[in-house]
Amino acid sequence: MPPRAIITGAAGLIGQYLVKSAPRWAPDWQVLGLTHDQLDLTDRAAVTSVFRHHNPDLMIHCAALSRTKDCERDPDRAKRINIGATATLSDLARNIRFIFLSSGEVFDGATGWYCESDEPNPINEYGRTKLEAERMVLHNPVQTVVRIVLTAGTSEGGNRSFVEDMSRAARAGNDVTLYADEFRCPLPAGVIARALWEVAKRDTPGLYHLGGSERLSRWEIGELLLPWYPELQRRLVKGSARNHEGAPRPVDLSLSCDKIQKVLSFPIPGLRSWLAERKQRGPDLWDYEEL
């Protein structure tokens, strides 16, 4: 029998890429993607039943309540999903490979270029729930946490990535305000999927950061995407994080990825270099097959 892997959050952006890219990056694995419609991860009895039925050798836990504003509006739900469900899965997977997808939002964004040894200090509910879940997972020395920040790509529903959000707003005739003083290190979902499969197969547990090699402002990201998304023309508005209203957002979440780079067989790209290479290859900007 081939080794079996379960991917939670299979309707989400990274979950979709993990499942679709498995034939290329994990051809020897039997992969089961689980969506919320198929399994409520907050139902411990149901989760336990599914886990025992499939008896996986690997679990990659991508499911989360990940939109910051949703976590602020309903912190109890955020705790049930981001902490409670993770605790259940981590416990069930205590004797197999387990990878928990976390977030750079565990940092306050005051400095940037965070490495794994830097002290977390979340400023929003999403970051707080992710940090608490991380600590539970890392209590088991054979389990793994991978922190990511800003993910680009396309999803089946067209509503899972920041790129899709921008495009949808512009097509609806709305301006898209991007902060020139808020920094991220965006990475395509296909790159993240490939990296996660490599981490899983190498079985090197611990805490890792995974982000693009370039630190870019939100405004710079929007400008880079203009040639690919013509609907953004004349819709981008340069703003400042000083005027931000709503859920708290860290200003600088650039991540140092030296640790995970030593594990991977390929260099982690930056968004600028990714886009430049895609101009030569085309036509699908975010296709994992182009890695």
Describe the sheet with the most strands. 6 strands, parallel
- Overall number of structural domains: 1
Number of strands: 12
How is the largest sheet built, in terms of strand order?
Answer: 2-1-3-4-5-10
Instruction: Tell me the name of the CATH homologous superfamily.
Output: NAD(P)-binding Rossmann-like Domain
Q: What is the percentage of strand-forming residues?
A: 15-25%
**What is the CATH architecture descriptor?**
3-Layer(aba) Sandwich
Distance between the termini: 29 Å
- What name is given to the CATH topology? Rossmann fold
Helix fraction bin: 25-40%
Mean pLDDT: 94
Order of helices and strands: EHEHEHHEHEEHEEEHEEHEHH
Radius of gyration, CA atoms, in whole angstroms: 18 Å
Q: Helical element count?
A: 10
CATH class descriptor: Alpha Beta
- Described by the principal axes of the CA atoms, the overall outline is globular
Strand pairing plus helix content: what structural class? Answer: alpha/beta
Low-confidence stretches: none
Summary tags:
291 residues, alpha/beta, Rossmann fold, globular
Describe the structure.
The protein is α/β, with parallel strands linked by helices and 291 residues long. It has one domain (4-155, 187-213, 255-290): NAD(P)-binding Rossmann-like Domain (Rossmann fold). It has helices spanning 13-25, 44-54, 68-73, 75-92, 125-138, 162-171, 189-202, 218-225, 258-261, 271-281; strands spanning 4-8, 30-34, 58-61, 97-103, 144-148, 151-152, 176-179, 183-184, 187-188, 206-209, 216-217, 236-239. The strands form 4 sheets. A 6-stranded parallel β-sheet has the order 2-1-3-4-5-10, sandwiched between helices. Helix 1 (13-25) links the parallel strand 1 (4-8) and strand 2 (30-34). It is globular. The mean pLDDT is 94.
